[in-house]
Design brief:
The chain is 46% helix and 19% strand. The protein has 269 residues and is α+β, with helices and mostly antiparallel strands. Helix 7 (161-168) crosses helix 9. The two termini are 38 Å apart.
């Protein structure tokens, strides 16, 4: 299976400052600029001042000032031998706190562990965020081969089984992806609104969605929605080599469906 190091976010749009940010004055604009700096590290482990300046379209002096402010608060750190910057330990601390305080993830975790034990596949638990899906929990496969462990947790909805099934049972996800468009990722990726409509309709009629070679070459996933009050708030999926996952879809779907119902009940269906 071939996975490019930067593939996970190659088609994920970076969040932009809103009109409200601009109208609220230079102080808030500076906050937005600092957040833009942090977003740059989503695709690269280390960056220099010139890299940041070029990506943000600002002067090197401005980029340096923003970086130094972030360094002073522990959000970014500098390698003094290379002069390059990377995310700091305080980002890790806050991320761990966000994960630990996610009640939906806590409710799902026991069930997700059961799915992982039963299938031996990587199990993902995702939630929608605009036109994307964010994987708030990932339990790696049990054979010791880490396929996704070093990749990010966000993907465009049209590239994943999770995104398809969330869009099938959550209109806001469907519409957000339509508005964002369908940038290509791999040869099998959905590329048009008509294709998106077709795969979403299929997921809606089946109650699950599949993805084969759409996010990563040679990899497949199957996802079902977690529906609370008639709307999909999350999805449960399994991920692995296509040769292993695709022939087992018929066995995986009932297991995933039962798991999603247990999670929905735990969070208050």
């Amino acid at each position: 299976m071939t996975i490019a190091d930067d593939a996970w976010c190659a088609t994920t749009p970076r969040k932009r400052a809103t009109d409200t940010d601009v109208t609220l004055g230079s102080g808030l604009k500076s906050v937005g600029s600092a957040l833009d700096v942090l977003e740059c590290f989503a695709t690269d482990g280390e960056l220099g001042v010139s890299d940041i300046a070029r990506r943000l379209g600002v002067a090197k002096s401005t980029a340096h000032r923003l970086l130094q402010t972030l360094v002073s608060r522990g959000f970014v750190e500098q390698d003094h031998s290379s002069g390059l910057y990377r995310l700091g330990i305080h980002i890790y601390e806050l991320g761990q706190l966000a994960q630990a305080r996610n009640e939906l993830r806590h409710a799902a975790l026991p069930t997700l562990r059961g799915v992982a034990r039963s299938t031996g596949l990587t199990v993902n638990f995702s939630v929608p965020e605009g036109p994307d899906v964010v994987f708030v929990e990932r339990l790696e496969n049990t054979d010791g081969v880490r396929i996704l462990g070093h990749f990010g947790r966000r993907l465009p909805a049209h590239c994943t089984s999770s995104g398809k099934v969330l869009a099938a049972f959550n209109e806001s996800v469907y519409q957000a992806r339509v508005a964002a468009g369908f940038p290509p990722r791999l040869s099998n990726t959905v590329r048009t609104a008509a294709d998106w409509e077709a795969v979403v309709q299929k997921a809606r009629s089946q109650g699950y969605a599949e993805s084969h070679g759409e996010s990563f070459d040679g990899a497949s996933s199957v996802a079902v929605p977690v529906i609370v009050r008639k709307v999909a708030i999350a999805s449960v999926s399994v991920f692995g080599p296509t040769l292993q996952v695709q022939p087992a879809v018929g066995q995986l779907v009932p297991l995933l469906t039962a798991a999603s119902r247990r999670i929905a009940k735990a969070v208050g269906n």
